[in-house]
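A protein record in our archive is deliberately plain, so that people and models can read it alike. The tokens are whole numbers drawn from a learned vocabulary of local backbone shapes. For reference, a complete record is included directly beneath this paragraph.
>
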Amino acid sequence: MMESNKDKQTGKLVKFESESIILQEGEADFNMYKIVRGHVELYTGYGTKQEVLLGLLGPSSCFGEFGILLHKEAIYTAVAYSDVYCLRVTEGEIDKFMTENHVVMLDIMRNMAKTMVVMQKQIDMLAGELNETGEKSSISIADLKRQSSRNIRGYAIYNPNNPGNYFSL
């Protein structure tokens, strides 16, 4: 990874070579990245038999907001598809970034809310399936809902060029 010296603006412009890992699933990385040029692939289970490609992000897209906003380990691996230039926003810079990029932050929040709605529907469907099969569970549906809201692993990635196009993990 090579870094440029573009420190006058919020964040630091960093370059990641093609095929390099930018963010590793399970890693405590509390930075957010905004793609300036190039493309990034997102995976779960990267390098394992359970590897799943979640999507491909391009310029103006952000990733890593889960870590910087919630102080949680990365829930996916981000890999440079091509040489990528990203604006890296650290915890110390997030306030300034939010002020200067309020539309981007609003899109991130909207997509996180959409993901929570999708997760709620999935919980309701699971609860319905459990009721149909008559399986007894040691945990109540209400407890399941409360616990899932505390342990949200869902997440939305947005593309400002198509704000309605997001996916959840």
About this structure: The chain is about 35% helix and 25% strand.
